[in-house]
Please model this.
Amino acid sequence: MTGTAENPEAQAQAQAAILMQALPHMLRYDDSIVVVKYGGHAMGDDKVGRDFARDMVLLEQSGVNPVVVHGGGPQIGAMLAKLGIKSEFSEGLRITDRATVEIVEMVLAGSINKQIVGFINAEGGRAIGLCGKDGNMVIAKKVHQPGQSVDLGFVGDPAKVDTTVLDQVLGRELIPVLAPIAQGEDGETYNVNADTFAGAIAGALKAKRLLFLTDVPGVLDQNKNIIKELRVDQIRALIADGTITGGMIPKVETCIYALEQGVEGVVILDGKTPHAVLVELLTDHGAGTLITR
Ligand SMILES: Nc1ncnc2c1ncn2[C@@H]1O[C@H](COP(=O)(O)OP(=O)(O)O)[C@@H](O)[C@H]1O
Ligand SMILES: CC(=O)N[C@@H](CCC(=O)OP(=O)(O)O)C(=O)O
Model:
C-alpha cells in the first residue's frame, strides 16, 4: 500500500506535481496548431474513441489548437464487403469507381466523422465535422500513378488548400474534425488518402506538429526496435535499404512533404496506447518517432 492512497493530502500534492510537470510543455504548444491524423486501424472500440476524444478536449483546454484528420480504411472495407462491392488497392490507394466513392463518402464524411464529433462533444468539447468540400477547403486532382496502367478512378491528391474556414474555427474553442473527401475542379467527388490529406492540411496551416496515430509504436529498425528520432535524409536511407516498407512508405513521404511545407515536426506513434497524444505532447518522455528536417 502506498502512503498516498491513505493520505488524501499527499495524493493531492502528487497530482499537483504531475500537473506542474506538464506546464513547460503546455507553454511550448500554447496557441499552436497540432494536426492529429487518426487512422482507421488506430480507432479500435468505443473506449479507444472516447479516450482519444478526451485527449483532444484536454489539449484544447490547455491552449493547443488540435485539428483532427481521420481515416477509416478498414471501416470502408467492411461496408463495401457488406454491400457486396469488391475493392482493390494499387500501391496503397483504393481503386475507387463511382459506386465505391459514394460509399467512401458516406462512411468517412458521414458515420465516422459524426461518431468522432459525438465522442468529443460527449467529453465536454465542441467539435465541428467537415470534409475537404466545405468552404472549398481542399480541391483534389485525379491521381495517376507513374508507370501503372491501372486507372484509380475517383482517387485524388490535394491540389489546393484554402484554410479560410479553418482560420474562422481555430482559436474559438472549436475542434475541427476533417474527413478526407474533396471535390475536383471537374465537380466530381474524390477519395483522398487520409495521410496525404493530413499532410496537406498541416502544411497549409504551418502546424507546429503533425501526429500520425497508427498501429505500430513508431518507425521500427531492422530489429523491430523503435527509432526515437529521425531526419529526412535518414528516412530516405531506411526506404532504400528496405527497413521502411508497405504502408509506412507513403506515411513517411507525407512527413517529408509536410516538413518541406513548414511543419516543425512530425511524430508517428501508436494510437492504441492510452493517451498517446498527451504522452507525446505534454510529458518529458514523449512517444513514437519524431521526424524533423
Ligand atoms: N520500418 C517500419 N516501422 C514500422 N512500421 C512499418 C515499417 N515498415 C513497414 N511498416 C508497416 O507500416 C504499417 C503502418 O502503415 P499503415 O498500415 O498504412 O497505417 P495506417 O492504417 O495507420 O495509416 C505498420 O503496421 C507496418 O506493418
Ligand atoms: C484513396 C484511398 O485509399 N483512400 C482511403 C481513405 C481512408 C484512409 O486513408 O483511411 P486510413 O487512414 O484508415 O488508412 C481509403 O479508401 O481507404
